Amino acid sequence: MQLKDISVKLPHKPTATLRISALFPGTSSPEFADPLDITSLPPSSTLLVFLNGLILPRSSWNECISRFLRIRDKQRRCASSSNSSVSSSDTASGPKDESGTGNANKHGSIPKSNNTSNDGTHVHVPSEIKIPNILTYDRFGQGESDRDPSDPDPEIDNTPYGHSPLDVIADLHQLLLLISQYLSQDLSSLNLVFIANSIGCPLARLFNHHHSQVRVTGYLFLDSMMANSDFISVFPDPDSPEFDPEKDLRQGVSEEDLRWTRQKFREKFHPSVGNAERLDRRGLRTLLPWADRPKLTIPPLRDGEEEEEDKNLNGKEKQEQEQEQEQAGMREGTITRPKAIVIGHDWDVFADQNEKGPMSIPKAVINGYMNPAWQRYNEGLTRLAAVDGNDDKDVVPVKIAKDCGHFIQKDDPELVARELDYVLRGLGL
């Protein structure tokens, strides 16, 4: 299985081309035909959408996706083999569990229940493991895509500022509408999962807030940009009248270290600094002033929407299932509460990269100020999918990607593949 690279045009920006890579199992669209005949696979109502940061293009996700597909295909084949074995043993003698359902494996031991994830939360096990639809894309002005036609003409106006984060999510919404047509499914019927790095994480949050009718059920945040920061205020100003060396200086950090760091971060990371994409970040702090809100939501079910298998349950069985699914954030086989996993960089690796990189920021400065601030921000992100008043139960603590810097998908694609599979299993997808 492999992603196909194609060009698309969005209806509201018909003069520019977006480059996307996609895998749509079960599709009959010739653009997405695959030499391994994925058309023979069952279609899926799950769509994985990978959101780039400012630096790396869509190709940076390829290795993660390849490893994820191997994980998923192995699960699919094992499940198919297991189902065949169980079916053939239903009428034969053999080891059975205490309930007599015949769920023992060939060694006579009862398989461990897999309806609980490794963070202790309930997992709705899907009756059929499918290969999900997959989409990566380069935003306008990024990678292989054309520049945004709404941006000022660089030959006339060389301003570093162009389209806004809200423009980006409007483009994404139009792209998803187009993709849903390829899939012959309504966008509102798809279960989307966003996998995002850096600024892609706040873009995912903005999309949920401004397009709340779309069912984004899962989020994998990889070293999210601190959307509410100017990246300079993280470090105390040694020239401020309020500066207190005894309180504000961390071990191994001098006032000159702080001056140097603030200068370098102002030059490279302040929201007013332009970028090749011409994505204007200046208003991002106003759009997302908090790490832990607005909450991530999923639209309510439409009237009459339920899984076909639920129709055959009697009243007591249906009530028991509803109670179980309510605890898991699902109802009538449909997810009602999103799942968010937050992964941060390895503190020492990130600090080492800053010290050895072109900015030459001392490790003590990064470990003393930036890393703790980023950790607090990430902790806020973990509460985005929690039900108010129930944070402790719903929150999955921040995970640290060992030996990874800011670009986790590049540094450890296997980790990203495993965590993505974990998110999907946690959603029963």
From TrEMBL:
Compositionally biased spans, kind Low complexity: 80-89
Chain spans, region Disordered: 79-125, 140-162, 295-335
Biased composition (Polar residues): 100-120
Domain AB hydrolase-1: 134-418
Protein name per its UniProtKB record: WGS project CABT00000000 data, contig 2.49
Superkingdom of source: Eukaryota
Upper taxonomic lineage: Eukaryota, Fungi, Dikarya, Ascomycota, Pezizomycotina
Pfam families assigned: Abhydrolase_6
Basic and acidic residues bias locations: 311-321
